[in-house]
User: Fold this.
Amino acid sequence: MACKISWTLKAWQSYEANIKYLQEAWSEKEISKFILLAEKKLSTLANHPKAGSSRNKKNINIRYTLVHKRVALIYRHKPSKNEIELLLFWNTYQNPRKLNLK
Assistant:
């Protein structure tokens, strides 16, 4: 059975920020492509929640996967609730020291 997908506020804001960046720098075609890639990735994760790589050894349920070569999706798999909680869409060009999932 497919996992339920839930969005945190930070995930939604970072998703919108990536789309806003594309609107400023790229074409409608690129925006549509990014949205389609994100939808496909979410569909894959719903059916295969462990498809992403483990984020750290302390919490193996926090995982990441690439949506696009410039954007990674960080999420938490909650097997007991059959749920995937989206935490952040991270632009990979950013300094990784700024990454804060709190």
